[in-house]
């Protein structure tokens, strides 16, 4: 429940000074809409992972490999390690799992005989395009329908909302 009139009736946490009931109600609707979007995004992400039979880290690795493919960049296991922020041992396990599942191929690096490259298989690239790619295209279309000014407002709002995490973390003391 996002309504501070219910969860914080005496304004100990949420300052509602100068806000009318209509203002508070509209803010509550914004918060509820954000919750609904978050839940929908989680369902879409879970659906894609189920469809492709992968976990979240596997999906992040595949998105990275697909982007690299689209940009005609070579990807090494070390680059995947850096991108995902996991250990090289975890990357090896991830690549073993993805290779066994037919999602990636490992091969020799074209210019460095000591290195390997990792690439996404065509079948997996197509599956990702049909699941995650189509969802992204629908979200892009919704954002594209906004005016430039409205997009700026949404960007500023979401940036400010994201920054609340940083403010919270900075205020934590031991």
**Beta-strand percentage?**
5-15%
The spatial strand order of the largest sheet comes to: 1-2
The helix content, as a percent range, equals 55-70%
Largest sheet: 2 strands, antiparallel
Indicate the radius of gyration in whole angstroms.
Answer: 22 Å
Q: What gross morphology would you assign?
A: elongated
How many angstroms separate the termini?
A: 30 Å
Unreliable spans are: none
* Global mean pLDDT: 89
Pfam family, one: MarR_2
InterPro entries: HTH_MarR-typ, MarR/SlyA-like, WH-like_DNA-bd_sf, WH_DNA-bd_sf
Domain HTH marR-type: 20-163
Organism: Occultella gossypii
Describe the model.
This is MarR family transcriptional regulator. Residues 20-163 form the HTH marR-type domain. The structure is a single chain. The protein is mostly helical and 174 residues long. 68% of the residues lie in helices and 6% in strands. Strand 1 (104-108) and strand 2 (116-120) form a beta hairpin. Helix 2 (21-52) packs antiparallel against helix 6 and helix 4 crosses helix 5.
Brief summary of the model shown:
Residues 20-163 form the HTH marR-type domain. The chain has 174 residues and is mostly helical.
List keywords for this structure.
single chain; 174 residues; mainly alpha; two-stranded antiparallel sheet; 7 helices; elongated; WH_DNA-bd_sf; MarR/SlyA-like; WH-like_DNA-bd_sf; MarR family transcriptional regulator
